[in-house]
Amino acid sequence: MRHGKKFNHLSRQKGHRAAMLANMACSLIEHKRINTTVAKAKALKQFVEPLVTKSKEDTTHNRRICFSYLRNKYAVTELFREVAAKVGDRPGGYTRIIKLGNRLGDNADMAMIELVDFNTLYNGGKKEVKKTTRRGRAKKAEGTAPEAPAAETSENTEATE
After folding, report:
1. Contacts 24+ apart (CB under 8 A), 128-132
2. Long-range Cβ contacts of 14-21 (<8 Å, 24+ apart)
3. Is 29 exposed, middle or buried (0-12, 13-18, 19+ CB in 10 A)?
4. How many whole angstroms separate alpha carbon 64 and alpha carbon 57?
């Protein structure tokens, strides 16, 4: 019977499942993409998306909530600095699951889960163009003669003295 089964238990006890999802979420935040099975990727998506939503508002309370789930201060710092800055205007859907095929050893369905804003291949419309500054030289007045280079002027001053 499936009474009360609202999420995939992944054939693990509660403590093991929570630790595994926390470790996978830390790896996802650190590396921006990881390869895993499809079932774990779907469970990780449900685990990490609320944390990314919380990271959009940088308060001590939200940092402590995220730390209680992730249990890694470096992952929390990167989540609130880099990831939150990229997803600040996105209303949701921070991760993408791409199916890769079957694993050779046990034929398990494999998938790659990644943070959407960190993939440059699929963000075709949002190509980051390097901005160049256009600064012109100050125009000299037409009546003045161009100055001699600094090396020549230093020689001329030595000769006159």
Report:
1. none
2. 17/43, 21/47
3. buried
4. 12
Quick one: average pLDDT of 7-26?
97
Place of tokens 């990314």: 52
φ, ψ dihedrals at 8, nearest 5°: -75, 120
In this structure, what token pair is assigned to residue 44?
């990780």
Looking at residue 8, what DSSP letter applies?
A: -
Q: How far apart are CA 144 and CA 42, in angstroms?
A: 73
Question: How far apart are alpha carbons 82 and 86 in whole angstroms?
Answer: 7
Cα→Cα distances 152→59, 140, 156, Å: 61, 20, 6
Q: Which amino acid is at 158?
A: E
pTM: 0.74
Alpha carbon distance 69, 62 (integer Å): 11
Residue 33 near residue 113 (C-beta atoms within 8 A): yes
Higher pLDDT, 143 or 65: 65
pLDDT bin (cut points 50, 70, 90) of residue 123 is: confident
Residue 114's beta-bridge partner residues? 33, 96
